[in-house]
Amino acid sequence: MRIDVSNLMYDDMVLEVEGQETFAVLEVSKARYRFLEPVSWKATVAKSDKGYLVYGKARVVLELVCDRCLSEYVWEDEIEFSFDTEEENISLDGEFLDLEDVLLGEIVVALPVKLLCRQECKGLCPVCGTDLNEGQCDCQVPTGDLRWAKLNKFFEKN
Ligand SMILES: [Zn+2]
Ligand SMILES: [Zn+2]
Which of 36, 67, 120, 143 could form a disulfide with 61 if both were Cys (CB 3.0 to 4.6 A apart)? Predict the structure, then answer.
């Protein structure tokens, strides 16, 4: 996301720009998610005291991995962003603002806290790993707090 600001000569001017950015993957701590489509964006740019203010929207289509059943699913969203280039320590590269990194950062922030392929995803059986969305297994899954399951089994035996 490179924006040519050479036309932005006066303080009361704003620049309307749009474009597309092709990213391969989004890195989030230890996970990597594939972009299924280029990110298309629209932005408005204005001069600030010492830098530029950029705000706009971007359409993001990513392949995420469900926290519960571990299957891949498509996540599509329109995210909003706003940057103050001075705050973000972005200096001009010639006559361009290079905003790729901050845009990627905004996408990371916009990701859902819990990644779910669907709200009612049943997840995997904690015993045999069967995808419970696709069918039932015969495991006796202890109800309640699964962290205690092992201990409960131990007490049952003794
Ligand atoms: Zn799922
Ligand atoms: Zn099972």
Answer: 36
The answer to whether residues 51 and 44 touch, using CB atoms and an 8 Å cutoff, is: no
The DSSP code sequence of 10-25 is STT-EEEEEEEE--SE
pLDDT in tens, 42-86: 999 999 888 999 999 999 999 999 999 999 999 999 999 999 999
Distance of CA 143 from the midpoint of ligand 2 (Å) = 13
The closest alpha carbon to 97, from 60, 27, 47, 24, belongs to 47
122 CA → ligand 2 middle, Å: 12
CB-based neighbours (< 5 A) of ligand 2, an ion: 125, 127-128, 130, 137, 139
Same domain, 54 and 132: no
Of 75, 73, 74, 71, the closest CA to residue 131 belongs to 71
Do 129 and 109 lie in one domain? The reply is no
Residues 116, 126, single domain; the answer is: no
Residues 6+ apart with CB under 8 A from 52: 5, 8, 45, 46, 84, 85, 97
Q: By residue range, what is the domain housing residue 130?
A: 122-158
Distance CA 56, CA 87 (A): 17
